[in-house]
Design goal:
Blueprint: E1 2-3, H1 7-42, E2 52-56, E3 64-65, H2 82-91, E4 97-101, H3 112-121, E5 125-130, H4 137-146, E6 150-154, H5 160-166, E7 167-168, H6 172-189, E8 195-202, H7 210-220, E9 224-229, H8 245-262, E10 265-269, E11 274-275, H9 281-284, E12 286-288, E13 294-295, H10 306-311, H11 322-326, H12 329-339, E14 353-354, H13 367-377, E15 390-396, H14 400-411, E16 418-425, H15 431-438, E17 443-447, H16 452-466, E18 471-476, E19 479-481, H17 485-494, E20 499-508, E21 515-517, E22 520-522, E23 529-531, E24 546-547, E25 555-559, H18 560-566, H19 579-589, E26 593-604, H20 615-632, H21 635-657, H22 662-676
Parallel strand pairs: 2-4, 2-12, 4-5, 5-6, 6-8, 8-9, 9-10, 11-14, 15-16, 15-18, 16-17, 20-26
Antiparallel strand pairs: 1-10, 3-7, 12-13, 18-25, 19-26, 20-21, 20-25, 22-23, 24-26
Length: 681
Amino acid sequence: MGLGKSYRDLLRYKVRHVGIRNTFHVAYLDLSEEVFYRLARRFPSVAISPRSIQVECTTRCNLKCTFCELSYWTEKPADLEFENLRKMAEQLPKLRRVDLTGIGESLMNRDFFRILEFLKSRRIYVTLNDNFTLMSEKTARRLVDLEVDQIFLSLDGATKQTYEKIRVGANFDKVIENARGLMRIKRETGKRRPEVKINTVVCLTNYNELPGIVELAHEMGVGMVQFVNVMTFESTTALKTQQVMRSVEESLGAARERARQLDVVVKAELFEKLPVQQCDFPWKRNFVTQNGYLHPCCHTTQTGDRTAQNGRSFGNLLESSFQEMWKGVAYSALRRKIRQGILPSECQYCPKYVGRGDVPAEGGSSVGSDLVAIGRAGAAPAGAAAMPKVAVVILNYNGKLLAERSLNSVMRSSYANKDVILVDNGSSDGSVEYLRARFPGVRILEVRPNRGVVGGRNCGFREAIARGCHYVLSLDNDVRIEPELVGELVAVAEADRSIGIVGPKTYADDGSQRIQCAGGQIRYTQNVSSERGSGETDRGQYDRIEDVDYFPGCGFMARREVLEKLGFLDEGFSELAHEDTDFCMRAVRRGYRIVYVPRAVMWHRGSATHGGYSAHRKYWEGVNSVYFVRRHGRLSDRFKYAFFAGTGLICALAAQSLRGNQKAVLAKARGIWDGLHKPMA
């Protein structure tokens, strides 16, 4: 999820639109849900009673929207009956929030207001999704009188032509009139609720109207717009936005700029996906169909026929208790897979999260097992012509002897179809002349003046793309690679198009034979990320091909298309630190996997250019750590980082003062401060 404004602006929006009391109430609900969620993940065998659920109000609708599966259904529509809702609520004594959502038009349910009155009598926070075609003044007044907490207006176009082309059977002018009427009634009665937001499903028909939707929101007095990507299935694949991704992002950028001018908050859930380990829906937002079937979330019921979907459910809430289903085999297995970073098979079309492929329940083979077989075989494609072209990009700065050693190892590589590019980043030690004389076949790219680590790597990446390479292997000048490294990486990457970045097992090049890195983990502690296996003796504990969070820039290989889609490394990460972590995080959010290949081996000296625990290095670690957390971290991640960074600085100051190196710690503290005030790109 991307917020177009900071958390401070979001808080200001909430206070302005729903008031301080309601803002604190929502914060309490969110915090209590987070506590229960953390406890449930920490103690998976303990049954919980959910505090929030999504309930389908009806499968009946008065429109035939082009992207909605309901338009293609042959099944008889049905409503959520009041007695069934009451039975569900009685089963869930801790229930505090209900989203009346789904694929139908809620106001067509004859029990709708009876359901609302029941939920509000139990002081439950209620959210609705509505197309506003049936939002008469009488209906709007009842919603205001009941103080329904939140309503999402489904608005998929800024013009009459586009909106009515998508929402067949709707009248654009009437919808806008109804929305304005609800806002007027709120003003007349002095009520802050319901809080009205706009939800827009972005598809090939309307992506160029995103700025106009923001303007419409402002005109109506709506303070938040949410853009979500269309979920397609067999009948709607022509609406996919991936084919015009760059144009969609440009339109979203224009919408965010217009939102900034008009003081509207924009949330966007388009192409970027999060690691599935961050999914909390099965703990926080179960989805219950109108006839009681329990699903992990609403996304698993968005396509296909409902009978088949319900056959994959955890059970029926009208027939079994939630606790029985929570402890059941299917529900337990799904939660376990998510914790392990596996995208469950029932979630394979999820628009929000990405993870390792699931192993089929019966027979068949998984992507993971295929990769293991490839890794063990270790066979490169036969014949250079059949091999994808790989560019090996080595970054050098005043390290001609190190670079010579690195180039010697690369030239001994058994992989034939490769280009070798050395980026000399403003060296003054004669590196260019020295290396050009010894390696006449290497393309030496002179960068003047020094562009820093990120800028220098990007120069090499652009040269690789211009030379028609399919993969780019990024190396530092203090790296030595084993002859089979490139072939091992290519073999694994070629096995699965969803793999965007691969990386090797790295040993410390100091004679210790210890692991330096087996891929990285993002933890949002003092240094944000950590390298798996660092300092450990290799006992085979990292000999399995598996997904990781990131690889350091000293050694990873990326697909050409990943570099092109992401726009290379972000040069907002000045000097060094976390530009590689950010790059991998953005790749994951685009749906790519980051895969560790243990049979690909290299040796890295480390800190050969920038020094070890130096003031320069620690300052930029501080700046870029905060920049990364601000860009990618959730609110809980920010609090976690703040705690560990603060306590870590105190401990480091005590330890480094004994060594006379307190300047480096103070430099990191200054970097953290500067990172807090650095403008976001």
